[in-house]
Every structure is written in C-alpha cells, then in structure tokens.
Design brief:
By secondary structure, this protein is mainly α. It has 4 helices and no strands. The two termini are about 15 Å apart.
Length: about 80
Amino acid sequence: MSGQGSGGNVIAALCNFFIPGLGHLLQGRVLKALMFFLVTGACYALAATVIFIFLWPVGAIFHLWAIIDAAVYKGPNARL
C-alpha cells in the first residue's frame, strides 16, 4: 500500500468500519488484525449479555481505534 491518505488506506478504514481488523488484514498486518478483531468482538459479545453491559464503550473505543489506525498507516518502509 502507498502512504497515508492513499486509496488503499481508505478502503482498509472502510473494511474496519464493518469488521474490525479486516482492514489491517488487507494491509498485511495479521497480528493487529487478530488483536482488533478478538478484543472488539469479545467486548461487543460480552456487552450483549446483561451482566457485562458496561463493556460496550470499550469495544467502541477499540473499533474506532482500528478504523483510525488503518487510515493513517504509512507502510513498513515509511520514514519517520
């Protein structure tokens, strides 16, 4: 993928909007994809139970973080 703001990053961010971690998987970042998918999914699943309803904001924060992280990804060869 190209640098920040490229079309690939926009597509990755849109993919993360629907399924957290999918955009990272498209960018080739498998560990981040797994982390975002599992943490966000676990928070949303536990929030669906009445006992752990307080976890939905944590899931929403991770979901938003996944979208933003995919959108601003600069690639492995980017200069600092």
